Amino acid sequence: MGTKRNVDMSANNDVVKIVADASQATTESTESTAPVVENTDVIVKKRRSTAGRSKRYLSNRSQVDRTKAYDAFAAVELIKRLSYTKFDGTITADIVVRDVETQSQITFPHSTGKVLRVVIASDEVIADIAAGKVEFDILLSAPAFIPKLAKYARTLGPKGLMPNPKNGTITDKPEVKKKELESGAITIKSERKHPIMHISIGKVSMETKQLVENIQALIAALDTKALRMTLSASMSPGVRVSLTA
């Protein structure tokens, strides 16, 4: 994604106040920050029970060496072989990162199969929101429209759609930002309370080379922020991926 752009300073104070008020209206009162994770051993996950699992899943899972971190190519090949959906499954990277505020910009070299619906705040878009029609994935806004959007913070906030200067969705050049986002530039970030990311890197039907290049771009974008990565398809066991070349 491109570099951050400065919001018009004449409206900056009002915008920041409105966004802060909107964020307060849509978040819980607890605002404690989780400690930095220095080691993946700190994150203890309860091993998922195999009770109720299908024989197909258990058979496929037995083919994964759970003590090993596979190189990206081997991991993708294994996932494609073990995926057992009748539809074209999505391959997701589940990543443990260093802290809950991890955020990075990335442009995948190949389409992940998901088309982002990006809109710019206007009177027409606001009317649609008021009518309950939220048919977009990203909402961009010029500073002047933030006061009009603030009253819908309770609708947009929980969906992660309220424009915010931190992720660049409040900008004085929304048309330029829209082109960047539609070209594949996205912001990836951890969950609000957990140092974990869930990033779609493509479809099972994609060429292995393309999926590997998307994984490499993801690892490069996170750099040392990533501690552990596991790949899985819509229906497949997880495969741990080495973060080194």
Structure explained in plain terms:
The structure is a single chain. The protein is an alpha+beta fold. The chain has two domains: 1-31 and 117-183, Rossmann fold; 40-113 and 186-245, Ribosomal protein L1/L10, rRNA-binding domain (Ribulose 1,5 Bisphosphate Carboxylase/Oxygenase), CATH 3.30.190. Helices cover 31% and strands 17% of the residues. It has helices spanning 9-26, 55-61, 72-82, 123-130, 146-150, 153-156, 174-182, 208-222, and strands spanning 90-97, 103-107, 118-120, 138-140, 185-189, 196-203, 226-232, 239-241. The strands form three sheets. The protein has a four-stranded antiparallel β-sheet with strand order 6-1-7-8, covered by helices on one side. A two-stranded antiparallel sheet has the order 2-5. Helix 3 (72-82) crosses helix 8 (208-222). It is elongated, with a radius of gyration of 20 Å. The two termini are 24 Å apart. Mean pLDDT is 81; it is low at 1-12 and 25-47.
Please render the helix and strand layout as text.
Elements: H1 9-26, H2 55-61, H3 72-82, E1 90-97, E2 103-107, E3 118-120, H4 123-130, E4 138-140, H5 146-150, H6 153-156, H7 174-182, E5 185-189, E6 196-203, H8 208-222, E7 226-232, E8 239-241
Parallel strand pairs: 3-4
Antiparallel strand pairs: 1-6, 1-7, 2-5, 7-8
